[in-house]
Amino acid sequence: METDNQNRGPALVDGMGRTIVNLRISVTDRCNFRCTYCMPADNVEFMDRVNLLSFEEITRIATIVSKMGINRLRLTGGEPLMRRDLPVLVNMLSSIDGINDVAMTTNAFFLKDCAKTLRDAGLKRLNVSLDALDPEKFRDVNRRDCLDQVLEGLKEASRAGYESIKINAVAMRNFSETEIMSLIQMGRSDGFEIRFIEFMPLDSDRIWERDKVLFGHEIVDLIREKYELVPIDNSLDIGPASEYRFADGKGKIGIITAVSNPFCDHCNRIRMTADGKLRTCLFSTRETNLKDLLRAGASDEDVATAIRDAVRIKEPGHKINLDDFERPVRAMHAIGG
Ligand code: SAM
Ligand code: SF4
């Protein structure tokens, strides 16, 4: 049986031979934004707080999976910075033996006041979601008028010494085209990799249609009208993004073709929702209830077995492009992107 580097126990391998090394942990389904591609404008039904995993419960699960070879964690949500005392959790997670990377995806609204504290607590990398640098377009897509505050958060994060800061922009037709160049120029001058993520059918409003996705190859073509791009060979460290560097040596970009050319064959991640459900795919229609197991007094071994059983039948891939595609009931903010 395959084991991880430190021989801590059998690695977490699914039925297709993919080794899982990455856990995304949603800490809340709440958010102060209402992005059109994610949440409804109003009347959102949030999880009951008693159902949210405590920091101790999250840390226990992270410790269990760290013994199965998971070494990278990413905090997400909802907006993870809506969860009080997040640096405490970051510190607990980054102290786990075997975890060598704790990262976070955030809308950056609250980052100005906590970027340094989070970094000091052990957070290594940040992904900041920013779809538009035009204030009106920002407001249209995020349904909040606060571009300046997000940019201030980003600036503060730059000062705090993170190992990397990437910008995530959802790529939507008839929206993103005008934003691509300004985002890229910011990335090149401030040292952020800009990653364009094809809009996926995970929005609460169910407005997604294939025609609304701005495809990765179209983005690359648009950028190439102005800049020469050189594909980066990532074969040794395969991630969801196809990366390109600018031929003039100034920065790089990433394209996540989640719809047009999914990365499922190389997927090495699983997710845990804020209410403690393990999901083996962003588009899973089944979940494993770890919260109930923990709260019923299960041993670490029982929890590990439940995780292994779930991973064994991890979905081979999502079916967005197939006739039998079924949207998950949860929208993105309740899954944890
Ligand atoms: N609130 C945080 C944020 O926005 O960064 C973290 C949670 S958010 C759900 C995580 C990532 O999912 C963000 O980068 C967001 O842009 C992306 N996302 C949300 N809905 C999406 C969709 N329908 N298609 C593609 N990406 C989406
Ligand atoms: Fe909130 Fe992030 Fe969803 Fe936007 S994408 S509504 S910031 S959870």
Give a structural overview.
By secondary structure, the chain is α/β, with parallel strands linked by helices. The protein has a single domain, classed as Aldolase class I (TIM Barrel, Alpha-Beta Barrel), CATH 3.20.20. It contains ten helices and twelve strands. The protein has helices spanning 55-66, 86-94, 111-121, 135-142, 147-159, 180-190, 216-224, 290-295, 300-312, 332-335, and strands spanning 22-26, 72-76, 101-106, 125-129, 164-171, 193-198, 229-231, 242-246, 252-256, 269-272, 277-279, 288-289. The protein has a twelve-stranded mixed beta sheet. β10 (269-272) and β11 form a beta hairpin. α1 crosses α9. The longest helix has 13 residues, at 147-159. It is globular. Mean pLDDT is 94; it is low at 1-7. The structure holds S-adenosylmethionine and iron/sulfur cluster (SF4). S-adenosylmethionine binds at residues 31, 37-38, 76-77, 79, 105-107, 129, 168, 170, 197, 199-200, 202-203, 332-333, 337. The site of iron/sulfur cluster (SF4) has 13 residues, from α10.
- End-to-end separation in angstroms reads 31 Å
The CATH superfamily is: Aldolase class I
By DSSP, the count of extended strands is 12
Low-confidence stretches: 1-7
CATH topology: TIM Barrel
Largest sheet: 12 strands, mixed
CATH architecture: Alpha-Beta Barrel
Fraction of residues in helix: 25-40%
- Shape from CA axes? globular
Order of strands, main sheet, comes to 7-8-9-6-5-4-3-2-1-10-11-12
Q: Could you give the order of the helices and strands?
A: EHEHEHEHHEHEHEEEEEEHHH
Total of helices: 10
Distinct bound molecules: S-adenosylmethionine, iron/sulfur cluster
Cα radius of gyration in angstroms: 19 Å
Mean pLDDT: 94
* Tally of discrete structural domains: 1
Based on secondary structure, the structural category is alpha/beta
Beta-strand content: 15-25%
The level 1 CATH classification is: Alpha Beta
